[in-house]
Write a structure and sequence with these properties.
The structure is a homodimer. In chain A, strand 2 (20-33) and strand 3 form a beta hairpin. Chain A is globular and about 60 Å long. In chain A, helix 3 (72-78) packs across helix 4 (86-98), helix 3 crosses helix 6 (137-150) and helix 7 (163-176) packs across helix 8. Helix content of chain A is 37%, strand content 21%. Chain A has a domain at 15-69 and 158-279 and 304-337: Beta-lactamase (3-Layer(aba) Sandwich). The longest helix of chain A has 14 residues, at 137-150. Chain A is of the alpha+beta class. In chain A, the strands form 2 sheets. In chain A, strands 1, 2, 3, 7, 8, 9, 10, 11 and 12 form a 9-stranded antiparallel β-sheet that branches. Chains A and B meet through strand 2, strand 4, helix 5, strand 5 and strand 11 of A and strand 2, strand 4, helix 5, strand 5 and strand 11 of B. Chains A, B: Pfam families: Asparaginase_II. Chains A, B: InterPro entries: Asparaginase_II. Chains A, B: This is L-asparaginase II.
Chain lengths: 338, 338
């Protein structure tokens, strides 16, 4: 590890009502530069935690390595926590067909589409969601194709001992600069391994994504570049209409951003006054409503212009069901710079 | 204040994944007995916070005082955060008509029904939710009737200077054993004043509800008794199918329980080895998923038998979308007994 600054005062997002604090979220942040050096932190940058879907750019690397000619939208959907709109499903179906797989091969499980309009459409048509609607179906379709292209069995592709999942764990360790033993293995919402590693490790992963060529030789650098290119070219595929990743990437040049469940967040920032940076943060209680507030505060702290359009993602003033102003959201991020 | 034990170690609900902690909620608890004495606490019992809808049994008191013959189901719906099912709406409509009011008089705003089946039904019929579907519509209908019966104007019934809202603030101070100046005023999600007071004050309010006759003279005691009776006789009206208040009250004899937004909780327990008790707790970050875990741990700590049916409300084992076991929920409540 280089440039560790240890644990310190955590950040906070405080929701107030009538001037009185009502609820409070604690936040841990790590920032790493293109030279893999930790340049800033808040709270405990060594916190071992689960990036969940923020791992998807890494989980898509075996696919990006094995299929260098894959269309960008299909690589993007493999990195996505998509909203289950018809546009998302069409790209998933195309990627799934490439490995000769069908919806029956997907092991992600089923939940209603995240997109409210898409969910309401299903209800209106009297239809049940399928595994295609699961936000991870693109990742699973990409994993199936990675297996076929690498000559690995499709069977058991979600299980820990499968060569694909072992490769993904190795990639987290290598790109994150942590030992394999420090990458713990749980099970994710979609049944693939969920990996846990120190927060600074995930910041390092996103720093690699921000600057692949500066720190990597061999085929990994162009594969990371393809992942970065696919994500930034297709922000709507990565999340969906009105969702944080999509809006941030649409508005901030040179940003690949990926949310994970339980309020994890990763950002690969290519254009900051300090050069390319990787950012990872975790809201300690998993409170996802605090995420846009922390993301914008971090952009601001790192010298990325925060426009009014961006600011609208994390409004300071909070409103109730009747549209009345009821409180504020305050962000405190006491960053320690290395 | 009697029996204050000050701030101490907070409780925690920890969600783990693959044996590694993933997210953590901090919890503050206060317990008060029928003699208004604080008998136990965890974290900061002096925390000034918003009970939100856990205030509803107090907000319904002016109605219970003015309409002693009101049917129990209508008093219950005035104490409810209901789920917007047809059963809920029928009782709200009946209560609303009693004051000659209509849906246009309700100032609560509009949101889709909390009950997923009721929400899906609206979508299928192509209808929009109305203020009747708002979880607070019964409270608002009750407030309108309280105004009419007291000779107060219906106009402005949600505003701070209205005599109804002043009376409700006084009741919080009196029943909670705190000064009026210590009852802060914000605005709630449904536009009535949201009051903030120390956690031990709300525990005292719920202790009053558990044992009205033991500590109050005058008409307040029978009015509190009617509120307790209405809540416990109609658990399905207080919340809705499968929801925490409803299930707890259906399974625990002598319990009136009321949730508030941002993970506040109040319980009036009539039958414990220590006699009647009032409990109030707040999950610091507003994380509502931690609430059933804390509620059950408190029942257990206070000597109320927790059956397997109750335990199912807050399962220790957590599952993913595919039904696989992925982690646990651990509760630590280091109660300090007075």
């Amino acid at each position: 590890m280089t440039g560790q600054t240890g644990a310190g005062q955590a950040g906070q997002v405080i929701f107030t009502r009538g001037g009185v604090p009502e609820s409070l979220h604690r936040v841990h942040v790590a920032v790493v530069d293109a030279g893999r050096r930790q340049v800033a932190a808040c709270g405990d940058a060594d916190l071992v935690t689960f990036p969940r879907s923020s791992s998807k750019p890494v989980q898509a690397l075996p696919l990006a390595l094995a299929a260098p000619e894959l269309p960008g939208d299909e690589l993007a959907i493999a990195c996505a926590s998509h909203a289950g709109t018809p546009e998302h499903l069409a790209v998933v179906a195309r990627l799934l067909a490439r490995s000769g797989s069908t919806v029956e091969d997907l092991r992600c499980g089923t939940h209603p589409p995240f997109d409210p309009a898409a969910a309401a459409d299903l209800i209106r048509r009297g239809e049940q969601p399928t595994p295609l609607h699961h936000n991870c179906s693109g990742k699973h379709a990409g994993m199936l194709l990675a297996c076929v292209l690498n000559g690995w069995p499709r069977e058991g592709y979600t299980e820990q001992p499968h060569p694909l999942q072992l490769r993904i764990r190795e990639l987290h360790a290598d790109l994150g600069g942590v030992a394999m033993d420090d990458v713990h293995v749980g099970t994710d919402g979609c049944s693939v391994p969920a990996l846990a590693l120190p927060l600074h490790g995930m910041a390092r992963v996103f720093a690699r994504l921000a600057a692949p060529a500066e720190s990597l030789a061999g085929p990994l650098a162009p594969a990371l570049e393809r992942v970065f290119g696919a994500m930034t070219a297709h922000p709507l595929l990565i999340a969906g209409p009105g969702r944080l990743d999509t809006t941030l990437m649409s508005l901030v040049p040179g940003l690949a951003a990926k949310m994970g469940a339980e309020a994890f967040y990763g950002m690969a920032l290519r254009e900051t006054p300090r050069g390319p940076l990787g950012v990872a943060f975790k809201v300690q209680d998993g409170g996802e409503r605090a995420r846009p507030h922390v993301a914008l505060a971090m952009l601001e702290a790192l010298g990325v212009p925060v426009t009014a359009e961006l600011r609208a993602l994390a409004p300071n003033v909070q409103y109730n069901w009747a549209g009345r102003e009821v409180g504020t959201a305050e962000v405190e991020l006491p960053l320690r710079w290395a």
